[in-house]
Amino acid sequence: MKRSKSIRFKILGCLLAISILPIVVLFIFTLRNITQFYQAQISTASNNEVKVVTSRINNIFENLDGVMTSLIFSEYDGRNCMLYICENETRENLLTAGQRLKNYRMYEYVCSNLIGNNQYAEGVYLFNESGYTYSFVRNRELGLEKDYEESVWYQDLMKSESLQVTKMYRPDNFPPDQQKIVIARRFTDVKGEHSAVLALVCNDDIFDNIQDNSLPWGKNFVMDAEGAILYGDSGDVSLKESEIQEIIGNESGVIIKKGSNDAYIYGTLNVEDWNIVNEVSFETLAQVSNKSTVYLIAIIVAILVFIIVLLLFTEKVLLTPLVSLASIMSNTKDIKQCFENKYRTRQDEIGVLYRCYENMLKQINQLIEEKYVSEIQFLKSRLRNLMSQINAHFIFNTLENINCLAQIENNQQIVTMSKSLGDMLRYSIEYERDEEKLKTEVKHIRQYINIQEIRFGNQIQVDLDITEELLEAKVLKFMLQPVVENAIEHGLTGQEMPWKISIRAIRENGSLMIQVKDNGRGMDGETLVQVRERIYHPDTISEDARYSSIGLSNIHKRIQLLYCDKFGLAIDSRPGEGVTVTMTLPFHIS
């Protein structure tokens, strides 16, 4: 029995499906919820913190914008300082050294008051139409005035419609890792006739002081609207291009790094659409999640162990007795009187089945024994009757006497017919073997042809094309005679002379093919289809007196029963060209 059709396979499969599938579903569902909760905690904490960070930085820039506005509209001795200098420092009006000194004092006074205590502002530059630059720096020279018209921040300011830009700036006399932030604004004098540029230079402490929060911050950097790194070490950034585009395209969010407990949180600033990006670690949350997963796996393993123990118990108590009983029942023919009943003492349904089967087997054996005895006695009686009616030696002796009398009377036809008939009878009653050598079958055919020649009064020409090796091959007994008989009865009878029957044998791919062909009338296509149907499917069509082909059908069945379905008999014919019958058997000599 196939394993897939066994009751053991089906019951165990059902039990496994009923018990393990819900556990697997529960495990996947719970693990998915844990992961989602973990990610939700990360997202919530990160979004809250990034909002705090971006809000703090935006407030700093708003304060610096207020400083810029205060610088532009500040007054000194009743005069608006910056607007006054902008109005005086024109291309047409060249100031003297004394006038510029006076302006410088006013300019420094205003700048020192407004940025003196500011922790981010480090210098103020005023660029006029005359080309003269006023500067105020608290500590070191920042060098912003050098070739300022060629600098990126100045050119972007001239192109900008908002009249203010914020850019990163690296002074030449500062270390490479120190950057400044330039906030530059264009403004005009009171009359709107002349313009100037006020630039406020700030340090990068704006971005350094963002870690006053509860998250374990790592590296942080600032990215512009194009994805370029403005602040921070770009070599430490391991973001992919798709992740950079996500940061640029969204206001805020979290990017969790696969295979680690780190993530990048980001938010968009109000300044030039800059993005503040920080790397954070969620190792604590990951540990909690891992512990929950370990506990869940331990529970699942314990449940699976319990299920396996239950399945083994079911296998031993229920399935093994049923499978054993099925095996015993399938081999009942090998059991003589009884079988070993291991479960006779069980009081459940299994014990009842075994006891009932044991009793049934005893009754069957008893009935079989009684039936066999009666059948044997009947067959012996019938055999004795048959033996008394027909005595093979009596038939052979009678044919031998007829043969001797025919020789005395010099009647050669009777001699030939009686001799051939006797040989055929001897060949026919030898039932011990199903196979004979091909040469024996051919000899039998020659004897049959002798009788038919006398019967019809015509000579039948038999052409043999068989090698000595193939004559020794084993073939089915009584295989050729029905084929030759059909050829004479249905193909040659009523035809003009000569009558020809050719018998050919070939060996091909381990098979022996024997072909019997006559030169009779042949068959049309419709009749050939009917004959083939009768040979291969004899029970599906009605009896046909002329083309019943009972002998051919029997040969085909015998070949397939003795050998296998790939061997058998084939028939082919055309009107006026006779009939060809081909028998295919396995080639063997033994």
TrEMBL record:
Matches recorded under PROSITE patterns: HIS_KIN
Main location: membrane
GO cellular component labels: plasma membrane
CDD domains named in the record: PDC1_HK_sensor (cd18773)
Membrane topology according to the record: Multi-pass membrane protein
Name by which UniProt lists this protein: Sensor histidine kinase
Gene3D superfamilies: 6.10.340.10, Histidine kinase-like ATPase, C-terminal domain
Matches recorded under InterPro entries: Bact_2-comp_sensor_kinase, HATPase_C_sf, HATPase_dom, His_kinase_dom, Sig_transdc_His_kin_internal
